[in-house]
């Protein structure tokens, strides 16, 4: 997409899939790698420069038939990233969590809900994103980071609704270096003698 920097991680060994995150090219951002035990197959992480600090932004896809090992890596990634200012978003496929009452059924959903609570993360999506379920969520380390969450119609042939929201953090803009000639320091007398 023109005007954006792309961060992506393709699904390995199969056609299609993976995650892709676009950030405006005017915002300073760079991709980061997490610890080996937190390096997920389908997740991408980057830091956005925000004045004197950074905001870690992550995009995660958690398959409904995920292996225990990969599920543990996602949990480790959330634990690692939640220790700093962060926004984590994606399709986590935890459809049995009632985010308004913070209740869940099923062992995996309960473990995930406990992880979110123990990591002191706020979950901002309270309406269904696919059918009757809230599968796509936005987590943040500070509630004020995310504002104006709207659930919109699916894009293209997707069966998931879009989530629009505002990140309320002042990011540093990329500064383009301009070189200008300093004409008032020219040695014009010497040039005339040539």
UniProtKB/TrEMBL annotation:
GO molecular function, one term: catalytic activity
Signal peptide range: none
A Gene Ontology cellular-component term: extracellular matrix
Residue ranges annotated for the Endonuclease/exonuclease/phosphatase domain, each copy included: 57-163
Gene3D superfamilies in the cross-refs: Endonuclease/exonuclease/phosphatase (3.60.10.10)
GO biological process per UniProt: cell adhesion involved in heart morphogenesis; larval heart development
Top-level taxon of the source organism: Eukaryota
Protein name: Endonuclease/exonuclease/phosphatase domain-containing protein
């Amino acid at each position: 997409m023109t005007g954006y920097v792309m961060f992506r991680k393709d699904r390995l060994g199969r056609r299609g899939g993976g995650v892709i995150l676009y950030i405006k090219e005017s915002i300073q951002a760079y991709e980061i790698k997490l610890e080996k035990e937190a390096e997920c197959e389908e997740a991408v992480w980057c830091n956005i420069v925000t004045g004197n600090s950074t905001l870690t932004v992550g995009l995660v896809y958690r398959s409904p038939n995920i292996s225990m090992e990969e599920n543990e890596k996602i949990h480790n990634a959330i634990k690692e990233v939640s220790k700093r200012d962060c926004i984590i978003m994606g399709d986590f496929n935890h459809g049995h969590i009632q985010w308004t009452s913070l209740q869940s059924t099923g062992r995996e959903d309960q473990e995930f809900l406990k992880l979110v609570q123990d990591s002191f993360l706020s979950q901002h999506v309270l309406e269904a994103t696919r059918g009757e379920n809230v599968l796509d969520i936005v987590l943040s380390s500070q509630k004020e980071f995310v504002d104006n969450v709207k659930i919109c119609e699916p894009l293209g042939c997707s069966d998931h609704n879009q989530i629009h929201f505002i990140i309320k953090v002042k990011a540093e803009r990329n500064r383009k270096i301009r070189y200008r000639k300093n004409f008032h320091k020219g040695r014009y007398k010497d040039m005339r003698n040539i």
